[in-house]
Amino acid sequence: MADGEDIHGLKSVLVMFQSCLNGEEEILMDPYLGGWKGLVRFLNTMGPIFSFISKDAVTKIQIMENFRCSERREDYITLQAMVNYELANQLVDLREPGNYPASGCRTILRLHRALRWLHLFLEGLRTSSPGAKTSTLCTDSYNASLANYHPWIIRKAATMAFYALPTRDAFLENMRVGSTEAAIEMLGEALPYISKVYEITESLYTEHKLLDLP
User: What would the pLDDT profile of 46-55 be if each residue is shown by its tens digit?
Assistant: First the structure.
């Protein structure tokens, strides 16, 4: 990202997710992680409300960056390469619960689930009326995605925190792309790329029976 660009706005984040996709419908790991790093910065501008997501994402990003800096970094250059390498070398325990090593497949799955929440929430912001409550949009998006994988106490804390969200217009303004209308237009152009990244990941994990990794 060039000096002087807004590192907190969502526009650059969504551009990074767009650049994840190569011509072979593979997901490039570095821009994927770059998109998530930008997303964490954006979430942090909203205060502690999303800390339960952003803190976990930071941990997962670091794990994947360590893989990308290791001697096996070429095996983690794309999501597809990572899955093939870890499964071929039995680095993912698919059978019994217990203490698992930090595999790339399991780590990306956690980010993948959070990406679903992101997409649903931003799509809700884009398509809702000006008077829509962001707390309701966020709660509905959370219940349709991440809530399924969180214990009750986290679900309760998250939904309570969502009541402190700013108004829809304030949220759109925080994307720092200009007017509310400009933010909605930007989301309309960029969200299909996040959806595409999600769909490719979902298909890959379904094919290899990885969606229910503990």
Answer: 777 888 788 8
CA proximity to 13, closest of 122, 99, 86 = 122
What is Dmax (Cα atoms) for the chain? 52
DSSP 140-195: HHHHTTGGGGS-HHHHHHHHHHHTT---HHHHHHTT-SSSHHHHHHHHHHHHHHHH
Closest CA to 35 of 4, 69, 70, 64: 64
**In angstroms, rounded to a whole number, what is the distance separating the alpha carbons of residues 31 and 65?**
11
Q: What angle do CA 60, 65, 66 make, to 5 degrees?
A: 100
Q: How far apart are CA 91 and CA 100, in angstroms?
A: 10
Q: pLDDT band at 206, cuts 50/70/90?
A: very high
Measure the CA–CA gap between 70 and 65, rounded to whole angstroms. 9
pLDDT digits 0-9 by tens, 119-155: 999 999 999 998 899 999 999 999 999 999 989 998 9
